[in-house]
Amino acid sequence: MNTIMRKGVLSVAGMAFVGGVFAGPVAHAVNNPVSDARPVAVVQADKPDIGTLIPHGTQGEQSHIDLNDEQTANVKAIIAATKKAGLPERAAVISIATSLQESKLENLGHLGDRNDHDSLGLFQQRPSSGWGTPEQITDPEYSTTAFLKGLKQVDGWQDMPLTDAAQTVQVSAYPDAYAQWEQQAADLVAQYWNS
What we know:
This protein is mostly helical. The chain folds into two domains: 1-40; 50-192, Lysozyme, CATH 1.10.530. Helices cover 52% and strands 0% of the residues. It has helices at residues 3-31, 50-53, 69-84, 89-103, 134-137, 140-152, 162-170, 182-192. The chain starts with a helix and ends with a helix. Mean pLDDT is 80; it is low at 1-44.
């Protein structure tokens, strides 16, 4: 056998040996995990932590609706207004849950006889109660900003259950109704906060 051929055969054999040495222990470690290993929580950096979105856990049975393109656009508008106001994700959860209860995230105009007085927009805000003009209230950014302004005036809103914070701003005849939307609102914030 000539020298060049012998070096080639030894090179291939050496690479196979080295590959086996390196592959062996790695494969062994994967197949035989260390007994004191503990699971590690994996957190996606691009999604808010659910613990900050629902710090008190949900209250009562949760409701859910499928959203169309207009409702999804309104979710994104609420999130954008929340960010613009410099408020955290929790404020967006409260806002979206409130809008889910008040309008199912639809920017409602005057509803005639079905209307609750002169309530309009995503949050069913009333011009006669000082929320703004009908044109302002039906602007998703304006109505969200108005809701958030009211929320910021609630002492300790960050530490309140969602339904208490929303009710303090909205003064609804059905104060516990907001709680049923907390999970869907948190899911929407987690999905769209960084999109």
